[in-house]
Amino acid sequence: MAGDRPLLSNRASSEISNDRDLAEEDALLTGQPTARSDSRPWRFWREIGLFIWAVVATAAVVILAVVYQKHADPQAGGGDAKPSGKRNLIFMVSDGMGPTSLSLTRSFTQFANGQAWSKQLAIDQHMIGQSRTRSTSSLITDSAAGATAFSCALKSYNGAISVLPNHEPCGTILEAAKKAGYMTGLVVTTRITDATPACFAAHVNMRGEEDRIAEQMVGDYPLGRVVDLMLGGGRCHFLPNTTEDSCREDGKDVVALAKKNGFNYASSRKDFDALKGGKNIKLPLLGLFAETDIPYEVDRRNENDIYPSLDEMAQAAMTALSEATKDSEKGFFLMIEGSRIDHAGHHNDPVAQVHEVLAYDKAFSSVLRFLKDDPTEGVMVSTSDHETGGLATARQLHPTYPDYVWYPGPLSNATHSSERLTLLYQTFLSSTPPPSEPATADFITNLLSSGLGIHDASDSEISNLVHTPETAQYQFADAISRRSQTGWSTHGHSAADVNIYTSDPEKTKALQGNHENTEVGDFLREYLGVDVESVTKELREKGTGLMAAGKGGKSVSWMGPLPGEGERLDGQDHLAQYTGDHKRKRGVYCDHAH
Ligand SMILES: *[C@@H]1O[C@H](CO)[C@@H](O)[C@H](O)[C@H]1NC(C)=O
Ligand SMILES: *[C@@H]1O[C@H](CO)[C@@H](O)[C@H](O)[C@H]1NC(C)=O
Ligand SMILES: [Zn+2]
What we know:
single chain, Alkaline Phosphatase, subunit A, 2 domains, 41% helix, 11% strand, globular, binds 2-acetamido-2-deoxy-beta-D-glucopyranose, binds zinc ion, membrane, hydrolase, transmembrane helix, Alkaline phosphatase, magnesium
């Protein structure tokens, strides 16, 4: 109850006080005193004040809107608005690089260069999120399903090269970019026909069909030529089986096919140097600088006169694509892969791994520099398709309680990869007459010391290498892994989440935090604003009934044969199945899909 005071008078006084506040505000806006002693009624002045306030406020809103518009324009940087105008997209893939690869390489670099604990790799400063990597067929993806998640923004089965679980092709970001008028490029250190690059410009049911992938990548498939620039290895899949360096099963000359489709061709360090760092590239260009994979960086750096580095190829590609699009309304899409971080993981070779990651970090820095200097708007996103090796910067060597240590020192004394040492060993073993056992033991002792910096090899280490040369590669890698106390849980991939990095966290807000790998693919197409669905439609229309040569003179779908029984395990069922396969299998080392 309001007691004695009438309700009405209460209300009136509150109205008056509100009016006074308004009057004071009006005074601030108009410069008029709030005195009410003049002959005009209070109401009049209040109306005038409100009117002026409204005019000023409207003007302010208009000005703010114009200013905001300008800032929201992606050309001016920042904002969540869809980008418009000319732009470049560089997508970097660190194949098989998990978070621990960075710990390993960072500590190695600090040790080798006497740097402070706080010293980071270039890439460390650009992390924005993580990607979850499972495929449709397994919690552990391979690079084919991994790259299909990027290229098509769709999940598929392990082994799928931009085809879906129903074996229909899916259009890729590169194909759509080409259709939209962008220039396109692929730079890798493995075979250009390997899963990651293949997923951007080919469609096959099984990743092993690299001969078919080579043909498609030079334009022999429903869309014609879509790649303007390819730099990497894998020459042997382009040469007819009548030539010595060929690894093709048939007599097709895919280099000739590429030339017919307009490609210029470079196949040596001399050819690469003639490209003048990209200033002298005439597109389209097919550059294949190794028969298969380009050697690991730890070996390649001593053979710089034979093979270009990842960084050199990346820089040449950016220079060439920038130059080629200088008068175009569209920029370019370029995929750069540090392909062999994955191989070092498969080989469980920490020496090869740290140098692969450093090579990637160097290319990463060059991309940042390019984007900063190039007048065209652009962004780089970098991520991995999966982790490889189940790498741990820790290893318990004995059953007793472990020490908390791992040592980068042994890695910094090593000068070669286990792959290269194995090649040297095989060459030695194949000499005539066959070397004696003691000569072989001497050779191994020297190899361990000169190649891995291991001067304390045990008798059993040497004896095992002498008697089981077929597993030499794993033995070399294990010798250096044990000494550095580097752990590995598999010679294959793992299901670890992998990091996402970018040149510009503002433009890549959509990728901050933890994401499904397909969302990386979503970002790529949205940034370029290209229509991937219409490419899918075109592929299906043109591809229906289209046949190609298969094994034994039989014809198969243009996407090649389907995986055999049990090669895919789609769905959820198998994920829950434990098969009792924990028992020790005896010494089987086999080739594996990466
Ligand atoms: C080369 O390929 C042709 C088919 O193009 C095949 O008939 C022939 O057997 C192959 N030769 C070798 C040595 O593989
Ligand atoms: C590395 O090599 C140097 C010189 O041979 C040697 O003194 C050092 O002990 C080696 N370090 C490791 C960790 O093997
Ligand atoms: Zn792999």
